[in-house]
Structure formats: C-alpha cells, structure tokens
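Lecture notes, unit on protein representations.

Consider one protein chain, 588 amino acids long.
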Amino acid sequence: MFQKTKLTDNEILSAVSYLEIQNVLALRAKLYPSKVVFTFLDDSGIETEKVTYGELFSSAFSIAQYLTENTEEGARVLLFYPQGLDFIAAFFGCLFAQRVAVPINLPNKRRIDKCVSVIKDCDAHDALLPERISDKLISAFDGEDSIASLNWHIAENIEKNLDHPIDNLLQKPFSNSIAFLQYTSGSTSNPKGVMVTHRNLTTNLEMMRDSWNLSNHTDMVFWQPHHHDMGLIMGQLLPVFLGNHTVLMSPNTVVRQPALWLKAISDYKATLSGGPNFIYDMAINRYSEKRMENIDLSCWQIAPNGADVVRATTLHRFSELYEKHGFRYETFMPCYGLAEATLFVTGGPTKVDPIIDVFDAELIEKQQIAIKSSDKEGVKPLVACGEPNWQIDLLIMNPETQLPCNHDEVGEIWVAGPNITNGYWNNAEATYETFVKYKYNGIEKIFLRTGDIGFIGQHKQIYICGRLKDLIISDGRNIHPEDIEYTISETLKKITPQSCAVFSYENIDRKSFTVAVVETDREIKRLLKDPNNGYKLSILTSVTEAHGIGLSDVIFIPPATLKKTTSGKVQRSVMKKLFLDGQLEKIN
C-alpha cells in the first residue's frame, strides 16, 4: 500500500485530533523516531533518563503485547510506579493493549487503606510495577486478604520486541471506550474512579492546544505526580499530542527546592510550566539570590496556575520577586479544571495580564451577588480563571432551584462538552448525582455539576469562590473556608494554606461552631512548647478582624497528619469527622 512518508504541519494537526493518544505516539515514532520526547531530572536537577519517540513506542508496544497475552481484555491494570519515565511506557502499553490503566499513588503507612479501597473499587486483578520496588510494595499489602489474588507483573520480565506494525495503528479513530480510571479523592468525598474515555482525552488535549495556541515548539517542564490528572494529562500526554520535548521532575524535588524547577525552565528554555498556587508561594518563601544566579526565565511564556485557589497576592509577589530574573507578569495563566471534565475547563487567553477584580465581600457572602467595589475594607479580591474552549458549555446555576443564575449572581458551576467523562466506575449513585441531564436553549445535554461555586465576570471569564459542600454559614453569610485558611497562613507565615483545615459543625442544640485545624512543621511544633507562644491568639484575632467570624477553637496537629487528596487539596470533611470522633492527634 502506498502511503505518504512526510506530512505537512496541517496534516499532522488533523491526524492527532482523529487518533487515540497511543496511536498519536505511533505516528510521532514513525515521523521522527530519534527525537527526544522526555528527559527526567533527579533530586539534584541532573539528567538521569531520556527517551525518544521511537524508544517510547517500542517499549510501550512490547508491554502491550505482554498484557494482551497475560491479562483479560478490558482488565483494569494497576500501575505502581515511582516518578520517572518507566511509568509512561507502562501507561501507553495499557492503551495499546486495550486495557484500562489505573495510575496509583505508591502507598505508604498513611496511604495503604486508600490504596486498598481503590483496588477493591476497580476490581483489579493485575498490577504492573518495576522490579526495584516489588519486594517492598508487595510486602506492604501483607494481611490484606482482599488483594491476595492480585497478579503482580514485573516490568523487567517483559521481552522487548522491535517488530511493531505502526501503519495499522494510524487507521483507527478515537473511540468511546475507557482509556483509564482517574481516581480522585475529592476534598469532600471518598475516592471515586473517573472513567476517562479516548474521546474525552483526545478532545481535551485538543482544547488545551487550541485555547493556548500550543505547538510542537512548546517545550515544557512538569513536576506534578503521574497519578494526578494535571501531572498525567498535561505533563505526560499533552507532550506526545503536541510532538514536543518535555522535562519531568519529581514533585518531592520541586517542593523541597523550587529553585531547581526554575533552573530547569531556564536550562531547557521551556515555554510552558506551572502548577497549583502553592508552588508559586513556595518559590516566594524559599527564594535564594544565590540559587537564582544565572537563571533566566525570559523564555517562560505560559505559567498555568490551577488545581487550587488562585491568589492575587501570590501572582503579584511572585512576579515582583522574579521580574529581575526575566519573569513577566503576563506569563501567568490562571485556569480551572477537574478530573470529571478530563482536566481542562477554562484557561486563557495566554500572554496577557491576569484579571484581578475586587468585590464587595458582604454582598457575595450574604446575597450571593458579585459587585465590584472600590473600597479598601470589606472587600474580596478574586482572580479570573479564564474562558472555556469553544466546545464547552458553562452555566452558573442556583444549587437549590437548579435554574440559571442572573448576571453577577454566584452559583454552582455546571459544565457540558465532549471532555465531560462518563461518570464514576461502579458508582451509579454518585454518577447520577453529579452528571445530570439538562435542557438549555432547547438542547438537552449531560452537564457536570462541579460542586464549585463561582460566577462569570464582566470580562466573560470565570471566577472561582470555593466548594459548595465546604461553605461555612455564619449569621446569614456564606463564608468560604479557603479564605479563612489563607488568613491563617498569612498570620503564621511559616505554613501554607494547604496546612490547615477550617470547618463548621452543630452540636445537639443546633448551635454552630467553627474550628481551625493547623498542621505544624518541626519549628512550630517546638515553639508551641512555650506557653507564651501567642500563635493561637494571633490566629483568633486575625480571623475575627479579616472575616468578622469567631473561631470556636484552634487545634494544632503534628506534621504530615492533615488529610489531603491525591492532588494535595485539604480534605475538610475527613478532618471534621476525625475531630467529631475525637480521633485527631493533637499537640498539647
């Protein structure tokens, strides 16, 4: 059969929007097999691994042939991998074999129960892992009878096969079959497996490419974990979709030394890199003039800030601090997304200054109306998180009446589009509650009820206020716990907003109380031994002054004991339950 051996840029754009992502990898391997697609840096920021498109395809297809012979069709395959390039080949191997990939956060003593619940929920019978962690990992599940039948497949035992029929893979358009399960332990719920189809994945990658004007020249640096939607889809699948080169780092490396992340951006002339708001805060708090010597950030064109509340103060502080190193304020791109929408919902336009507006806090809290204010007190600054792709429909709905809100009204964000997933694996009740049929402008569509509260501003961009289920109702006001947590972090200076959980509860007499649980570090834990440390009083005073609400109690807990989701979001409902059950590990 005669086929073209060289495609134009427009032909490649058409092809990658037509193919499933694993077959995009096959196309890239055919067109430029020797181009490096991923480079991995160790904890010192030194290159330890590289892989070309051709090598990645060969490894992935070898894994696929093994899985085809040794697992059942449609099987869920658990991927137990540390951060590195081996995971990517395993993930693509599952897709080539038409197995459902299930990325797993490697368990430790604190995560073992959550890991077991994921395995039970997806009813997996197969796990793929590298030999170097096999003994330790398998022994971690000793005594767990429910997973005794799990088949452990060691990656190094898979025979490499260099004979792969690439051309046959380029004739298969994307389908509605499930590509992988993205387990999300939301801040208000237990882990649920989001069923991401090939159609969801291809269209969402296309949305990011087109909305942000990305290309094969958009080289990237990413550090988010591969079991998280942003780390997997934006950090490891988007590069293959674009055909670019991406540098990967471990999240532990970047959290410990943010300067290494910025150095990688400079060294590899990356144009796109980012993460949740907290990583920018860490880069501010751990700034070192010496470590930033010779680092040039002028190549950085797009800095996504999402998966967390985007703070105006963070954007200003970071840009002011790193301006002398070439960073431009317009590089910031606040965005919004969630796993149930595959990943991307809003973000962009790029290369323009972020929009920050100041609103009347009382009107938002009491009347759920967003009106801009020029006052200096009683205001709430909010960062606009971009606009949706043209394929996405976004509504602001009254959560009680389930009718569209009027202009400037605050309500629940509902989203529809080809990126909205098929629901939760083996969880019909949660799927029915979250994915609802709604007729808008005479057309019935499936809308995702995000559970997030927000509104559309005058610039036609979305503003995110917080989570519906986390709202604290005090004296007729709807207060978002994220705002109180941020005030606490600003008061102590030594912690981040992800280090505290604020929630409310009612006693038997229906009297309401609001509690702050603060996770300490070693230094704060030591200072708390001084009865005159003043931390508790400072928090109580600051919260009252900033929000007009009195905290009933401030509880300090040891380091690494605050419950969080796989993406690092605080699980307030879990902390509330521990508090009410008397199971919080407190520092006296």
